[in-house]
Amino acid sequence: MSRTFTQSPVPATPGLDALDAVTVAAGSAPDGVQAVGYTVAASGDVPAALGLDREALSRAGFEGKPGSVLALPSASGPGVFAVGVGDDAPTGAALRDAAAAFVRAASRWADVALVVADVGGLDAVETGRVLAEGVALGRYRYAVLQSDSKHVPLERVTFDVAGFEGTAGADGGRLADGIAAGLRDARATVVARDLANTPPGRLTATDFGTVAQELGARFGFDVELFDKAALEGLGCGGLLGVNQGSAEEPRMIKLSYTPHGEATGHLGLVGKGIMYDSGGISLKPSDPMHLLMKMDMGGAAAVLGAFTALRDAGATARVTGWLMCTDNMPSGSSYKLGDVLVARGGTTIEVKNTDAEGRLVMCDALVLATEDGVDAIVDIATLTGAALMSLGQARAPFFATDEALADAVSAAAESADEPVWRFPLERKYRSQLDSGIADIANLGGKYAGATTAALFLEHFVGETPWAHLDIAGTMQSDSDDSWRSKGATGYGARILLHTAATFSR
């Protein structure tokens, strides 16, 4: 007798559910609060509430460095923590990191308060934004599949900020408005984390489409799903070629956000959505990096995460997203080295390595975006190991053909504290992609892999201004690191959100 195995359902976005349940407000620490943190700079006055002077803190090994935390003994009442912010005039990034470090240190408690002594030159809105992002992202855990998880979700967070008290700041902004903006921006990252952390057997390309529809209905954007037959009709040979070896159908998920009133422009976002990347016939070795290939859809997850916040951010541009989703699996039907695929628009592509699949699924979307008449395109992908080797896990390389777009991406990255570094599109390397039997090959030479991958993608954007983010190195963190929780980081979601929210052409 045959039996069908079914996995027990779990929430698609458990982190989003947890974020919805927490109350974050400005004001004095309320009665019953379980833990209180006090910010301490590397020099200057120490909050009297800590009951220790700087010399005593130093003897305990606490010097006020950014992100450092010292738990102080307390016989009764709430737990007390000293939280380092570094310089006397902390930056937004330092305050975000401090908030994240505090809620991690106070992980036993659901009701916490952070007393901030000095915000430097930040206004009330920016202060509220970075603090809210810090607590929301720092406390994040993907624990939905752990039956004995000790994770305690936040229920209430209170920010007591000197000089603001929840009222008007130096620029007339309000701390509460900033907190709302921070929770909105954190939502984009949390959604991306949830999806990238989900085991591949529980999130297929089809499942991803269903999640997108649910989020679209809730957060004000339209979702159109394209199945295998529809993709064949569109001539999306890149996505279909990579999908050949999979038992799961591919999906192209088209997201559409339309602002109220006249749009200030039309931005296209393209995300790589390889739900699991085995490497195909060019099989990856079975090492820890292979284990992370459930996150190879991190680019598509970042785009979807950004869309959940566009309406609340008041984005004035029209934004369209293309998420190119499939597994890359080895089987008797897999595409092979030496095959030639035909992308949307007719470009023929010689396959020299089936593990260079991300660029193959994305090229179809880039052509569709240009056909849709977008004013600019930003694509995002866990694309190359060369990105990880060149800049590590803390910073992502990006490429751009347009200076204004490059500046917008750089500014968005700085605002989100998701560091990027612009790489040159070195045209001398373009010949490495030449093919003897097709228009272009999907793999370049031994060196500059991030650059040759970008040059491949550029082939499909024509004259449309374009930027490309390679997040292969930044997609995950091996341990808790400032606002980055262990596991999927959701890197890029807030970059895309901030770029789209300010886009104008």
List the topology elements.
Blueprint: H1 14-21, E1 23-26, E2 35-41, H2 54-59, E3 69-72, E4 79-86, H3 92-105, E5 111-116, H4 124-138, E6 156-161, H5 175-197, H6 205-219, E7 222-226, H7 228-234, H8 237-243, E8 251-257, E9 266-277, H9 288-291, H10 298-313, E10 318-328, E11 340-342, E12 348-350, H11 358-371, E13 376-381, H12 385-391, E14 396-400, H13 403-416, E15 420-422, E16 440-441, H14 449-458, E17 466-470, E18 476-477, E19 487-488, H15 493-501
Parallel strand pairs: 1-6, 2-4, 2-5, 5-6, 9-10, 9-13, 12-16, 13-17, 14-15
Antiparallel strand pairs: 3-4, 7-8, 8-10, 11-12, 14-17, 18-19
Helix pairs in contact: 1-5, 3-4, 4-5, 5-10, 6-10, 8-11, 10-15, 13-15
**CA-CA gap between termini:** 63 Å
Task: Record the strand order, biggest sheet.
Answer: 7-8-10-9-13-17-14-15
- Count every beta strand, where a strand is a DSSP E run of 2 or more residues: 19
| Average of per-residue pLDDT values | 95
The number of helices is 15
Morphology = elongated
Radius of gyration: 23 Å
Helix and strand content put the structural class at: alpha/beta
CATH topology of the largest domain: Aminopeptidase
How many structural domains are formed by the residues?
A: 2
Q: Level of helix content?
A: 25-40%
- CATH class of the largest domain equals Alpha Beta
CATH superfamily of the largest domain: Zn peptidases
Query: Which architecture of the largest domain would the CATH scheme give at its second level?
Result: 3-Layer(aba) Sandwich
